[in-house]
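anyone seen this seq b4? input:
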Amino acid sequence: MGIPPRSASGGSRGQGHQVVRAAAVGQEQKQLQRPGKAAAGKQRGGAALVMAKRGAAALVVAFLLIAVITLADAHRPAPAASPLVCKKAYGVKEHETCFAVAQATRLPLKQFLSFNPNINCDNLFIGQWVCLAAVPAA
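predicted toks r here
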């Protein structure tokens, strides 16, 4: 920049400094309006806040998942105290179901299933051996 021109009234050099100072203030205002390092810092700060919120949400989801799994495990039936020994077996015939076999032998379905803990009632096959009476192993 050059030396500012003097005013018609013969202003002093102090007025020239005021013009230069005003120009400098104008430049500072323009820099504040431009997205620069300060704006990027604010963006990074905002991103950190978003990440913190996502992290907190992830922790809440993980906690709820653990709670659900724990509760699901609590409702599973306890394993038999001792293994059972089958005393009476039966061979499944065509078109029979677990319910039909239990009903025909006058066993409650729950007891039939306890005698046959590994049975897949959705996939019985002809000739499959099922237990109709069992006692605890000695």
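The chain has a mean pLDDT of 76. The beta strands are 84-91, 129-136. kinda curious what u guys think
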